[in-house]
Each structure stands twice: as C-alpha cells, then as structure tokens.
Amino acid sequence: MAPTALVARPVSFADIPRPCWERLLAATPAATPFARWTFHRAWWDAYGDTAHEQYLACVPADSRADRVDWELVRAIVPLMHRHEVEPQDIVNKTVLRERDGGETSRTVPPDAKAVFFGASYHADYATILAAPADLEAVSAATAQALAQPPDPVHGSQSWDAVDLRRLRVADPLLPALELALSAADSSWHVSREQEDVCPVISASSGDWDEYLGSLDKKDRHEIRRKQRRAAVVGDLSIEISPPTQEAIASFAELHTLRFGERGLFPAGAGGKRSRRFIDRLGELERESVDGGQLHVGLVRCGTRLVWAMLAFDDGETCYLYNAGMDPEAREVSPGITGTAEYLRNRLASGRRRFDFLRGDEPYKYEWGAVDEPIARLLVLREEPR
C-alpha cells in the first residue's frame, strides 16, 4: 500500500493541542527529552523574541484547507526562522556553538534568513514528531512547504538557508529528509555534514564495580582514589530531586560558582534568559502528568553540598545537561566524586545509557564514553563558495 500523501500547513506552537504533541512524540523513534512539549514551551517563553516560529502540521492531502483537524495530524515539524547571526546573539546567549568541521563544514552568511529546528539553540538533539511509517511522506511534505513562497504568517522574505542541526545519525528521519530536500528543487544545494559528537556511556549491567572494571586502568584508579580521599572528609551521599525551585536554585548557585561569566548565568540579559528558561522548564516538568523527565542530582559530603547535576531521565537514558560544583571543596574532588555518585545511583536504578550530550571535552572519555555523531542538513539557494 502506498503511503498517504501529506501536506504541511503552518501552525502556531500555541495552537498545537498538547495531547496531539504527546501522541506524536510517543510514536517518534528518535524522540529525546529535547522533543518534549515542555522543552519547546520553556524555550519560547524565555527566548521568544530572538526567533520566529515556523511550525508545520502534516495532514492528509485531501484534508480541509481552511482548518487543521488535530486528530488527523500525522506529524509536527518544529521549525523557526531568524538570521543566521543576530546582532544581540551574544547578549541573549543565542549563539550556536560551532565545532571545527574543517573544509567539509559549510558557512552561511551572517545576514542570511535561515530556517532552523525550533528551540535548537539550547537543545542537543532535534527531530520531527512522526511515526516511522510516515517519515517519507512527512519529509516530502516538509520539503514542498519549504519550496513554496513564504506564507503571510512567516513574513514576505524567502529563506536563504535551511540549516537543520542536531539530527542523530541513527535517526531514520535523516536519510528520508535528505532525500526529500534533494528532490524538491534542482537549484537547491543540499549537503550533510557532521555537526558534532555526543559521547555516550553504555553499561552492560547495573553493577558499579563491573562498570569501573570496563574503564581504563588509570581512570579507574583515579576515581577510586578520589572517592577514598573524599570519604575521609565526610560521607558522600546523593539526592535525586524533582526540579523544584529550591533544587534548581542550588544547581544554579554551584554552576555559577564553578563557571562564573563563562557559564549559563552570567550577569546581564543572557544570564537572565538562561535562568528564566531553566526555571520555566523545571516548572513545566514538575507539572507534567507523566511525572516529568527533568531532575537535579545533589551530592553532599557530610552536610555540605558540593556538586549538582541538571539532567533528564527517560527511564532508559540519562542525559547529563549541565553541572555545577563548589570550587572551594577541592579536597573532595567534586567533579569526579559527584559524577561517580550520580552514575552509581542511576545504574542501581536500572539505567544503562548516559549521554554527555554535545561536545568532545576530554573528561567525558575518562568515564568510558564513546562518540555518537549528530548531523547537520544544510540547504542553500546559492552555490556555496
């Protein structure tokens, strides 16, 4: 049976019923916490004036054109548009971290109007919400929508680039979307490149000693040595807390102590936006009927809070979003002992995958993480130079 032909219609994020979003999220093979309604809602609440929504709903081609029947929606395509670089990006903390891709990495003029995945400036993964069987038709509908003149809701200027990032290489959407974009218009220049890597730990069991035994001997010895040294100062303990205001405040305080102006919460507008985003995300996750996936790991040495981790836990994988630590607690090596306490706790709770998310910082590999690449699909109207 041939797949149902679909068309993509522009919709406002606020008009998408949350039950429809949740239905499609549950059917999406590459869904992560970054595809949750809560993440998108929190992002627009904090950064809404830095980009313009361009969400699409894919429906059967023979559906009514004057309204969207949400029961018939087969996919949600979360897009936004803005200039590739905006004058206030540094102040607003809306800078896309670029990884040196060498000669294979394409550049886009800073003044180009670019279409991105929605909320992707602060997400580590992105995808389209759709069932696997619909990905071919959804990708074709998305490409055709991008080939049309801009609708009035999205302004009169056509895009210069479609810059879709954060796509997992294992996501079946990636080849389907690349093929559809390549076929949509012969004048488009479509390329796929590796955007970054996400180092991931895959544990064979929940046994802490077995996991340590899988690490490099030097790294294993260092972890155990620092745990023993910390135990002389005080007993290490961990609390996995819901993202309450108090828990998030503790995380923000330790993160700022450790990273200062280089962290999430520098002085000024950018830091305030980051805090608004994290606070709002915590609020929405706490209120979710599924109990939410965001939590805060708090590690103490005795009664002293020395380390905090903001992470997502979907029941199978823990996504380590960001951390903070007390730099005055050097004698207990909070970066190592805190991470060890968190991993040991989550292993005992049945988790076997730990995703350090974007970036190839050396410390991630000391825990046995292995790179999983993420891709960028770039479409340019002009021949790249």
Structure description:
- This protein is α+β, with helices and mostly antiparallel strands and 385 residues long.
- The longest helix is centred in the C-terminal third of the chain and has 19 residues.
- The strands form two sheets. Strands 2-5-6-8-15-9-14-13-12-11-10 form an eleven-stranded mixed beta sheet, sandwiched between helices.
- Helix 2 runs antiparallel to helix 9 and helix 4 runs parallel beside helix 5.
- A hairpin with a 3-residue loop joins strand 12 and strand 13.
- It folds into two domains: 198 residues, 3-Layer(aba) Sandwich (Aminopeptidase), CATH 3.40.630; 148 residues, Gcn5-related N-acetyltransferase (GNAT) (Aminopeptidase, 3-Layer(aba) Sandwich), CATH 3.40.630.
What's a quick, concise take on this entry?
Helix 2 packs antiparallel against helix 9 and helix 4 runs parallel beside helix 5.
What tags apply to this protein structure?
385 residues; 4-stranded antiparallel beta sheet; 11 helices; alpha+beta; Aminopeptidase; 11-stranded mixed beta sheet
